[in-house]
Design goal:
247 residues, alpha/beta, Rossmann fold, 8-stranded mixed β-sheet, 4-stranded mixed β-sheet, globular
């Protein structure tokens, strides 16, 4: 089944089937029920002069939207079922400014063991942290700096990272690289996957070292203490821009 999606005047088609209840998911996307602030943030920061990197692309809701706003989208997804759907969605639209990497961003280069939190590959809950789950597979892994080098990326102004807790490995390793160019990081921080908030300190050290300002996805300015006190997942905009408001 093919569905036509319209988000704020940006349109694209998607493959939807009943196996993963994708009809309901894409209806939620179209109706603004799925991560409405994510699309607002993409619209605010992306533009045709720069590319962006989508770490944890899943089946493509942000990729299909963000590629229409940016010069080029580099989409990264390690889940074999999700990547099959992602590739089908990109092919369906004949979008030519998207590069897909069927692998994972990690804190080292080489083969990487992945797993799924619920044991259901394709459902967006895959992570390096769940490598010991009943459902596991091996994929190619590279550091963030290596990925940029491989793809000769020199004009990126935005990175979206939603990796189900793997940020605890990725960000500390990537700190120096992230300091080397000006960009905004839109991070899904999965603190509920960590044994306690203390283990987030290397992530927060990275954020404080690289970016001048941290905001929630609704534009509320936050700091390290705010993040450490929360016991639920947060959508964080880390940027060197000063935002009086988002919307």
């Amino acid at each position: 089944m093919i569905m036509h999606i319209n988000k704020g005047g940006i349109t694209f088609d998607v493959q939807a089937d009943q196996v993963f209840d994708l009809v309901r998911f894409w209806r939620d996307v179209a109706n603004g029920q799925w991560e409405p602030n994510t699309f607002k943030i993409f619209s605010y920061f992306l533009n045709k002069d720069f590319c962006y990197v989508d770490v944890g692309a899943w089946i493509g809701p942000t990729v299909l939207y963000g590629s229409r706003l940016s010069k080029h989208c580099y989409a990264i997804e390690p889940d074999p079922i999700a990547t099959e759907i992602l590739n089908a969605n990109i092919s369906l639209n004949h979008f030519e400014n998207i590069t897909i990497f069927f692998g994972a961003i990690n804190n080292r280069n080489g083969k990487t063991l992945m797993g799924n939190y619920l044991g259901l590959p394709g459902d967006s809950k895959s992570s390096i942290l769940f490598a010991n789950s009943n459902t596991a597979w091996v994929t190619d892994g590279v550091t963030l700096s290596k990925f940029f080098e491989m793809n000769k990326i020199t004009n990126c102004n935005f990175i979206k990272m939603d990796v189900e807790g793997s940020e605890i490995l990725i960000l500390p390793e990537a700190r120096d690289f992230l300091c080397s160019f000006d960009h905004t990081l839109y991070l899904s921080l999965h603190s509920t996957f960590f044994k306690n908030n203390e283990v987030m300190k290397p992530i927060l050290d990275c954020l404080e070292n690289v970016y001048k300002n941290l905001y929630l996805d609704d534009g509320t300015k936050i700091n390290r203490d705010y993040i450490m006190q929360k016991n639920h997942n947060l959508e964080i905009v880390a940027t060197n821009k000063h935002l009086e408001f988002l919307w």
